[in-house]
Amino acid sequence: MTARILVVDDIPANVKLLEARLLAEYFDVLTAEDGFKALDIVANTHVDIILLDIMMPGMDGFEVCERLKSDPKTSHIPVIMVTALDQPTDRVRGLKAGADDFLTKPVNDLQLVSRVKSLVRLKTLSDELRIRAETARNIGFEDYLRMDNLDAAGQVLLIDGRASSQERIIKGLKPVAEVTALSDPQAGVFEAAENPFDLVIISGNGEDYDPLRLCSQLRSLERTRFLPLLLVTETGDEEMIVRALDLGVNDYIVRPLDPNELVARTLTQIKRKRFNDRLRSSVRQTIELAVTDGLTGLNNRRYLDNHLKTLFNRAAARGRPLSVCITDIDRFKQVNDTYGHDIGDEVLKEFARRIRATVRGADLACRYGGEEFVLVMPDTDSVSAAAIAERLRSMIESVPFQLPGTGHSLTITASIGLASNSGAIDTPEQLMKHADRALYQAKNSGRNRVVASAA
């Protein structure tokens, strides 16, 4: 795993030391001697992680971090503050400025590398999701990157075997989160998997369980894989911290706990979780929109072209029947010409609704284009398919379509062409061609009828 790291420090010896350690791990390293140059580098160069000193002349690390996090173009870059200051108030101030973590000088090599690798993994995921969401926005989809409601009270699961420790953490987080506390780690795994928590806090002082094993379990389960984990460790327990970060734990805090630092780290993880949840949701919705017709809500032709091939090949391999019908609204152009395209759209929506009411769970209904729709029916021979198509035709004709805003209704009919994977049909393209020919015949022979392909 490699990445580009920016080291910011006004003392050359500190820069050289961090640079050497990171280069030994094959990271690409950039350096800056002050905050102004650091901001300039980030504005003009791709950077994955920033190691930022606090005590610098002109502009200290707190201000640099605040500027980075307030700019939408750089707010996603993880910032690790590297400082000789080790007071809780300094850590809290840095976290409130947007810092993702602190390393105290002299920097421990294992913690440095583990923390950087952990944040690189997180940023890689975040970058991929951000690119996809930005693409969706650029092509006109809803703005999925809006950051509202990220400050709402969080839901936190605390797994801690000591009642006194539970009480202190619950009291510390009361202003910002609702905490569910459990002593049994296995009950905690079940609770985390079954409920929508924003963060799991795991105490490292478990006498009857291995906290790292618990972290591993939560990372391996599908439902909790992306759930942020905050490990509470004892002073000097560096080996546990390093191993925890390698397992994918998001953050850690060392006892004795400072309430302000606990709140700040908890809020950071909750915000990050909600941000990434929103990005993942945008990816899913983008995929859905890419294969869904925006007007009718049915699958579109892109989805049909890909899925029909799969269904056809599966039916051929299993020796099972597969039928396709193409249906076309009769004289739909007259609807648009007489009542306008907005009424035409309403007719299309209602037509799609009646198709959905007709099809079975295994059937695939798609809008093929314009006023044409396709229904793919797996495990359905030509006789059964003809009965389904006739039921659809009758449902379209029997109930008039209401025309919103006009007070009128309109009788709509449809012509349907049907074909099945029998005889000389060897490909899904041939199947669609035969159904299209049958539709053409239905149109030419009077409309409002179902015609099956002779093939």
- The whole-number mean of residue pLDDT values reads 88
Broad shape: elongated
Named CATH topology of the largest domain: Alpha-Beta Plaits
Largest sheet: 5 strands, parallel
Query: Which parts are unreliable, with pLDDT below 50 for 5 consecutive residues or more?
Result: none
What oligomeric state do these chains adopt?
Answer: single chain
The CATH level-2 architecture of the largest domain is identified as 2-Layer Sandwich
**How do the strands line up in the largest sheet?**
2-1-3-4-5
Helix content percent band: 40-55%
Note the gap between the termini: 58 Å
Q: CATH homologous superfamily of the largest domain, by name?
A: Reverse transcriptase/Diguanylate cyclase domain
The number of domains is 3
Number of helices: 15
Percent in strands: 15-25%
Number of strands: 17
From the alpha carbons, calculate the radius of gyration and give it in angstroms: 30 Å
Q: Structural class from helices and strands?
A: alpha/beta
Q: Write down the CATH class of the largest domain.
A: Alpha Beta
Provide an overview of this structure.
With 455 residues, the chain is of the alpha/beta class. It has three domains: 1-107, 3-Layer(aba) Sandwich (Rossmann fold), CATH 3.40.50.2300; 143-287, Rossmann fold; 301-452, Alpha-Beta Plaits. Helices cover 49% and strands 19% of the residues. The chain has 15 helices and 17 strands. It has helices spanning 12-24, 35-44, 61-70, 88-96, 109-138, 163-173, 185-194, 211-220, 238-247, 259-290, 301-318, 332-339, 341-358, 382-398, 428-444; strands at residues 4-8, 28-32, 49-53, 79-83, 101-104, 154-159, 177-182, 199-203, 229-233, 251-254, 322-329, 364-369, 372-378, 401-403, 408-410, 414-420, 450-452. The chain has a five-stranded parallel sheet with strand order 2-1-3-4-5, sandwiched between helices. Strands 7-6-8-9-10 form a five-stranded parallel sheet, with helices on both faces. Helix 2 (35-44) packs parallel to helix 3 (61-70), helix 5 (109-138) packs parallel to helix 10 (259-290) and helix 12 crosses helix 13 (341-358). The longest helix has 32 residues, at 259-290. The model has no long low-confidence stretch (mean pLDDT 88).
